[in-house]
Amino acid sequence: MDTFEPQIVAFCCKYCAYAAADLAGSMRLSYPPNVKIVQLPCTGRVDIFHLLKAIEDGADGVYVAGCLEGECHFLKGNLRARKKVEYVKRTLVELGIEPERVEMYNLSSAMGPRFAEIAREMTDRVRELGPSPVKAEAFA
Ligand code: FES
Known about the structure:
The protein has five helices and four strands, in the order βαβαβαβαα. The two termini are 20 Å apart. A four-stranded parallel sheet has the order 2-1-3-4, sandwiched between helices. It has a single domain, classed as Rossmann fold (3-Layer(aba) Sandwich). Helix 1 links the parallel strand 1 (8-13) and strand 2. Helix 1 packs across helix 4. It is an alpha/beta fold. Helix content is 44%, strand content 16%. The mean pLDDT is 94. FE2/S2 (inorganic) cluster binds at residues 13, 15-16, 42-44, 66-67, 72-74, 77-78.
């Protein structure tokens, strides 16, 4: 039997999560190759549309990783991102899609191990949920 390998898109702020991903790489910490990283200047730039579009385009899970609360370089970008993630979760519920497919994380550039842990956590969570129903519909 084929094992389902989820496709995950991670919208990462360049000041924290993206730098943490780099650090994880230099520390030779492995994390699942399922995660495709999209770099942003700040998670405040992520749009509800980007998150929904990623799912529509076939991602089984999506997450946003921004600076720790109170440490966004643009003051409240990460707080705005969290609200957008929560909005998308509610929208998914209305569409009959598991809201756990979308998540918001906060970390610092020094948290390479945490970056790898988040990538594993999301991959395991989405693997358990199975393929996105959007994907299943598209190929039905
Ligand atoms: Fe990192 Fe805003 S600068 S989330």
